[in-house]
């Protein structure tokens, strides 16, 4: 057994060497807030945007366990939830299994954010475009409400309610979440073993609730047709609703560190930056936990509903992967990750977990080998400490999997070396 070197990203590798007898198998801040006194005639609300999640055609088997706060909530310690999420299930498709998966994801967010005001979600299945798994966002956005930390800045209604300590619009739900009824490969289980030909529904719900709670900005590029994204002129980049930015927008910048809201609005200059592949979120909490500013998704071709309001592709195959723009079959992610939670802290949410993931301790890997040819070998990884942990396995025969306890069936007798990597970066 070998122990890897502990690195700043808290990554540790254990190799298992076992011999199998034939025919037996062995697995061998920029934050200068200006506070305005609350004026009821000045408080403003508008409909919010919708952000999409797409299907990643590449299979990425990975398991990221629920956060420690959720695990404590479900353990004998019974740590109480700090927020309440109520769901209105609208229309057809909401089998008991689908509802249970949704409630599982909602329960996770309930232990991560703090709000005295219940968060109400309208959830439905409806046909969406090819490759789109779901879409969600705040039903309304608010600015210049009581206790607003920044003047002239839009907040999602859930964030605004949290800050105002009251429901600013009790007659309306807070988040609209829609999932593709034309997609048939949903997996409604909440375990760690999503089949490689299925998409974990709870993971998609967890992702989309993140957008509804506040992981969304106002930057966009006009396509010159249909509804005007900016002025109706093709190729112009713009930001703001009614000329006011979102709280998310205050922290985004280009490669040179220039805040995007300081660039000319309704301009090709802004458009070129939004498609430069070098857009970053640079809040103090997020920067601290990430060890630098956070890359955002900024492909060379603007993707409506995907560009800008997602983490960059550098976070794929990590414990921070939930808020990337796509999720693959076989991918199971039950934790927003420290980077996302720290972005929420920068955007004026109170979050329960420390932004920096706790160090991984006591990684141990076991298996039930030797096993008979034709019988799956069961693997298991355990730790004695650590948060936001994900596991990745290499079975030594060209196959891989995610999760803490995968099973794998070898095709030929022999001696194999299996490797498990646990990380929270």
Written description of the protein model:
This protein has about 425 residues and is α+β, with helices and mostly antiparallel strands. It has 7 helices and 29 strands. The protein has helices spanning about 70-75, 95-110, 155-165, 200-215, 270-275, 285-290, 340-345, and strands at about 1-5, 10-15, 25, 45, 50-55, 60-65, 85-90, 120-125, 130-140, 140-145, 155, 175-180, 185, 200, 220, 235-240, 250-255, 280, 295, 325-330, 330-335, 365, 370, 375-380, 390-395, 400, 405-410, 415, 415-425. Strands 1, 2, 6, 21, 25, 26 and 29 form a 7-stranded mixed sheet that branches. Strands 7-8-12-9-5-20 form a 6-stranded mixed sheet, with helices on one face. It is globular, with a radius of gyration of 22 Å. The two termini are about 25 Å apart. Mean pLDDT is about 85; it is low at about 1-45.
